[in-house]
Amino acid sequence: MPEAVVFSKPTALTEVATHYCPGCTHGVIHRLVAEVLDELELTQRTVGIAPVGCAVLAYNYFATDFHEASHGRAPAVATGIKRARPDLIVFSYQGDGDLASIGMSEIVHCANRGEKVTVIFVNNAIYGMTGGQMAPTTMPGQMATTCPFGRDVEQAGYPIRIAELISTLRTPAFVARASVHSPLHAVHAKEMIRRAFRYQKEGTCFSLVEVLSTCPTNWGVPPVEALAWLEQHMLPYYPLGVFKTPHGEDRAPRPLGGGA
To answer: Which of 69, 128, 150, 154 pairs with 134 at a CA distance of 20 to 30 A?
Structure first.
């Protein structure tokens, strides 16, 4: 009898070599998104929005239509595409420097309008591609090129919790935070991403999934140590779970090590 296939490349991913740094978890998140698109049978009618940042070349990895957006403007581009073609599945894939800094206004108003798009927000607590500067999500005391002695909250304020901020809006939405620093957490992250795309498929609401990610290069630690650093420093400040649902249904269980 032929052997059963238990693991294969999603059709929503292309076969190209990655440009991401060793230990970067962008690739894990890419795969989770691609698996969900395939399993929900959305690949052939999906349009992604690539941002400015580490994921600027996301269009090389997904076998879907893609559109490039100016820095921080992915939600506005997604809005235009979705309103012009509501039959399409539209998602933006954005980092913290892109979404939480220059794009803060765009994401808040997109969510507040209830645009029926999906946002995958990758939070690695630092600017990646542009040189490791302090981001809106950089942890207190965390060193970066623009704060070599660590983030001083008296000068720079505290890290911004995007999931909590968006969930305070009155407009119905699905808002969740997940992580991919372990296989178990990646499984939970996929379920959050699946829910987000399912809500769009059903025409229900705006959805945002924040995914905690590592950046070994700009954190200045080896990849394995980066996973431990995320769990030790980021999870207590960025708790995992579902923060908002469109109909108030039961929230998803919090993954192990979900923080306070």
So the answer is: 69
